[in-house]
## 1
Amino acid sequence: MTQAVIELRNVSKRFGETLAVVDNNLSVNAGEFLSILGPSGCGKTTSLRMMAGFEQPTEGEVYIQGTNVTGVPAYRRPVNMVFQHYALFPHLSVADNVTYGLRQRSPKPPSAELARAADEALGMVRLSGLGRRRTYELSGGQQQRVALARALINRPAVLLLDEPLAALDRKLRAEMQFELQNLQRDVGVTFLLVTHDQEEALSMSDRVCVMREGRIVQIGSPRELYDRPNSRYVADFVGKSNFFAGPSAGTVTSVRPEMIELAPTEKKLPQGLATAVPAKVLNRIFVGDFTQYRLASDRLGEFLVVSPRRNERDVGTFEIGDQVAAGWRGDAAQVLADN
Amino acid sequence: MKKIPDLITAEKFVEELRRYQKGSISRRQFMGATGLGLATAVLAGAVPGLRPRKAHAALSGTVNFTTWPSYFAQENLDKFTADTGVKVNVAVFGSNEEMLAKLQAGSTGWDVFVPTNYAISTYKDLGLIEELDLTRMPNYDPASQEQRFTAEGIIDGKTYAVPKNWGTTGFVVNTKNVTQVPSSWKEFFEATQGPLSGRVMVHDYQLTTIGAALKALGYGFNSVDEKELAEAEKLLIASKPHLFGINSDYKPSLISGDAWASVCWTGDATQLQRDMPEMKYVLAKDGGEIWSDFYAIPKGGQNLDAAYALIDFLLTPAINAIEVKAHGYPSTDSRTNALVPKEMLDNPILYPAAESLSPLEFGAAATLTNPLRAEIMARFKAA
Amino acid sequence: MSTHTRSPLVTGLLLAPAGVFFFFMLILPLLVMLVFSFGERAAAGGYVPAFTFDNYLNLPARGKAFLNTLTLAPLGTLLTAVIAFPMAYFLAVKVPPKWRVVMLVLVMAPFWTSQLMRYYAWIMILGSKGLPAWLAWIGITDVRLLNTPTAVLIGAVYGFLPLMVPPIYVSLEKLDKRLLEASADLGATPWHTFWQITLPLSLPGVATGSMLVFILLMGDYILPQYLGGGKVFFIGNALVDLFLQSRNWPYGAAVSVALVIIMFVTVYFYMRFVLGKTDQRRAALV
């Protein structure tokens, strides 16, 4: 088993009457890219801030590389953070921002070495030659990369990223997702990213930790979370799903829209389906590579179906008001706790 | 154990506050600080509507009375207001030069002011003061005045100013702190640069300060001789590091004990001695100043009737006697002297022996406008 | 949408009030002063037209006053800033927001009383029965404070603190606290964070406050007169003397012109230095 670079052990954090984080255990492995995913107010940022040292846990301990760092202030922790709005120093040049961490060391590295390190770090984030600029002269994406370079130049044990892409526009965000992944692979530093965007978490991470109301609900690879969510909450947050009444009280049956088969009639459905119902098309959205149908069935109520373009060859397309048949295989349905 | 000294007592603070309210902190300084002075003066002069209308039947409005620190009895001014309904606005100044500068600049708003003998001819020459109509001051009796004090108020047979009181300029010494009391200006400046270093004050006033230095060097009090003035300047500048301060409002520092000796006028010495018998007033044996102050009316006064009424009121013997009791300067009016308590008439500060008066000189008009004396005073302060 | 261009006439009319104000309140007085400075003193004082450089050649006669002003005004400004900064920092960073306004008002409170009253209070505190008496009690005897440069500096700090604290407070208050976290995160101790982040980023506030205090101190004459007792002499006092005692208007005008030039040059280079340092001007353009 790989060594954990950073760990939360039974950590709770209370702000006055509010419990922000409740008895969490989290272990981040060396070299992995882990995301903490959850809606705002779920305690994900507080967890990150406790790792960085900006907050101290009310209970429990924080370990970095096997050392208990609970109570150790931020400036003595071997981790670095990329802030949501970058928090670049407006009075310093790009290069001075980037070498800020190195200049805090004692003894301070000679200026030639600082210059070399700045060049190298800026090269790494593809900002070569911009060292003398002021940070406010750069675009949002460039500022983001300066923030990355400023943190990574210190070779932190863990790089903490607090919603790093939230301030970027959609196209840039997609680009930066790739870039972050590549960067992480290149430098081999452990990345811990906090986000509310499930797509971001799933696309970049080795593992995703889903949080809800201060608690960790599930940790696993993106595929595990998608395929085997341990609760309705996770299934709903990670991807889309249809929830039907479960076999017993307090349970639901979850079926992913893309796992549902569609046909003009029940007879035309594939063989071996566990469930098959007649339904009516309420709405239909053509997305391009797939079409999304909203169906209504007397027995199951309304549900979503995603039909890939390829299927149209066999079953054709449907219009609003059409009577259709829908069904799924037994392994497509998962019984989950209804919470 | 030693007693912890009081920082400032509440009474002391209130006393200072009173001084401020009474106006012994000059209004010029206050108005100057706020910029109000100039603004009101300019406005009042420029906008006809703002000029008070002349009172025909009865007196009304305000009379602006410009005088010197601690130089009037508040009860008299209150009585004047009660009798006539005219409010008295008091402003105090530190030197005749300041008053002249203000009048030259114009639009002072003053109704009555108090120039010193040697300044009057200049005011008349510059056309800054009114000729006085003595019929409007029935309580003033030229016959009861001592001739030598009234003389400079009358120019070419016309009266431009009437005497308020007279006095001398010597120095005061706190004998509790000072055992070797100087007897001359020479000794005064020697002590300043010697045992009294850091404890002596001189006036912020060219006539008395330069005059004292000239006397210490054996020259005339009123000298405008370039060489003599150069020597006086040298003496003053050499003394400056040893002075406690340069200020015509020197009583507070003497009372607080910060200063132990100062160039001083009669009335201030009288007032100081009331509470502090250790204060000794010395008329320097090598000379000094004898002077008289006058009431005069500047040209362009806004409330001429009230101005005459105020002067007439203050020169009424019974009222004037109250003034004398308050400020401690001897009156020029024999009728008033008859009403002043005997112990005041016997006080050598007010009425020094004739032989100590003999070396004193009246200030000369030339000193007021002499540019060299003005510049030397300014250089001394700037040194 | 088409671009709407204002006619030059309208623009001119809109700017007129400001232009008139500047002309009558700034340009005209300066011109009058300049003209007077080449004139001569009238016999009894005042001004007679002439063209002479004597007044300027005579400036060294007030050299000591210039020197006093140019040492004590910057020193007083510096001391005020040094004392105001921790106060502003405390207010902006340590005091809970709901108390800040109250505390800020308390800082300004001395301004509500008359300036003269405040100086009189200091005369009593610094006089021989005040602080020196206390010092004597603990064995430090014969301390003379009143009418010294020290007294003037104390008065300057006390008097101008209310002008210095608010601008520094504002710049500290709007300082992005995440920058401080970023600094700590990058390994800077709180002390280093203060020097490298907090202080440089609050410099515009310090600069504004310093300018206010410096300009007021340069022209002050009340403070040196009261707490300097006529012994600590500023250019302001020289001007009061020249205009109100010796009535040498032309020479006073020359001294004023010199003072205006000195102030302008000092302020210009100071602002350039500070703005260059913090790059706020360029930041403001972005």
## 2
Amino acid sequence: MRRPMSQSALRHGSGYGRKTTGDRVFDIFNSVFWVVVVGIVIYPLWLVLIDSVSNPGDVYAGRVVIWPIGFSLEGYKAILASKQLLRSYLNSIIYTLSGTVFSVFLTMMGAYALSHPFPGKGAVNFFIIFTMFFSGGLIPSFIINRALGLYNNPLAMIVLGAVSVWNLMIARTYIQTNIPGELYDAAAIDGASHFKYFFRFVLPLSGVIMAVLSVYAGVARWNDYFTALVYIRDRNLLPLQTVLREALASLTSSAASLIEDSLKIDGIDVQAATRKAEVAKYCSIVVSTVPAVLLYVFMQKFFVKGVMIGSLKG
Amino acid sequence: MAQTIRIGGGAKRPDKGSLGKRFARSVRLHWQLYVFIAPIFIFFILFHYAPLYGVQIAFRDYKAVFGITGSKWVGLKHFRDFFRSYYSMRLIVNTLLLNIFGLLWSFPIPIFMAILLNQLNNKRAKSFIQTIIYVPHFISTVVMVGVLFLFLSPTSGIINKALTSLGMKSIFFMIEPGYFRTLFIASDIWQHAGWNTILFIAALTGIDPELYEAASVDGASKTQKIRYIDIPHLMPIAAIMLILSCGSMLVSNTDKALLMQTPNNMSVSDIIGVYVYQQGLGKAQFSYTAAINLFVNVVNFITIMLVNFASKKLGETSLF
């Protein structure tokens, strides 16, 4: 229940442990349910983490279950030696930063315009929302984007998918409900144009929604592998996820490309190398996932609030 | 800038002149807003409407040298080819089943979770749980599927180690067709069910506290409050989510299916999106796969309209 206990206790005398048996059973069931759910969510994450720092032999034998065994950072050393991985990591950072800035700025501009009345706004709204229900699809998009010169072009990683209808609507709703119209009237009396008003007032007052949009756009970009799969051919331009895919989601896992560098050095004991490759996979998962999760955790404060504001009307 | 004031003031705007003149004046006053909307407009033209224009290659034999409109018109040939092919039925059935089973499981769970979360008395526990259950949403599909491969590996995976230690045989889950849908849907739920509670929690937060208080006075138990207050309040938003999901019954999570597909589980993992990707981009059958794309789009569009219409008739919520 959302209201403070004290208030409810005063009103109904239910705060003195005089809950009905039914409610008490319900509360117990509910607590147990959440302990189980939190366990199910956390355990796989924890397991990946402890596998990444354990002794490869023990990981391979399935002995690492609750706590790391034989702490070692061998796996991390191995993946840090992989030039391909580092290169793609850097690419992903560039794509994510520039893509996020581009996406958030474009979305805020559009959302600002849509939060004001202007002639033809209904038509523009329809024009935008229609794309939610009918789209060209992968192949026609590919042909058009190739004609636009985005094939094998790093710009594809920044531009494609920069604006989503959903984010546009969330941002518009936020501006409409959180920035009073009187503020614009006052600014206009002082002679402020839409441009001035947008940069002076709207952007500074939209911190929460821009945080939300940044997390959406940033995480989407960081985690995207499909765009690169379709558009990027040059191996030096590949983002992290595409490189990870080659290493992780394959059946021929024994010769993981991640540690081929180290394989060349001590390439005698194949079995040991296989086990090491397995741990290196866990390490690469940790290294690639931590930035997205950290971004979420840091932004989390604004986040839940902003998402709720946006979604209420959506 | 005196002109802008009048617009901001709204009510004071004089209603002089013909409609055309008024429109022209209004445009003059708001030209800046058109500048704001212009980038979005261009974006949608380039990346949404140009591909829509390109859909016509479904009726042509597209050759890059001739361009879109220069390629030969072949009418419905590609559609006929698709429906006559051995794969079409399998693709449609696989896509539908994956989506229907997915919806059956992953639709109710977030609603259930939101209701239970709303009933927790401890505020700190509540926000801790919220923080935790959103985390998997931020994990990439590549990593998710990678973790499945690792945990379910027949030689070193923790699941099979547990099975063998219990005296059971180890199973190579990722190539066994029977496990494909279960794994696909279960991992989806693990990743996104928590995140998908947000909308429902927002709806529950919007309920007037007096309703609960009145119910308490009348001696309602928690389950009764859920039954008579929470669930009716969640119905509209749930209906909208359901209508939207019905509009994507033939759309598939291509990225994930592509990652989870192995030669052995093709009989269930071969879905429309994956086929379009492999045939279209892998084998450059642009027109043929564009036709499949168009077929999917039309079916989705009709479905969403029908469901929306039915929902409206039944007096429930509708999209528009």
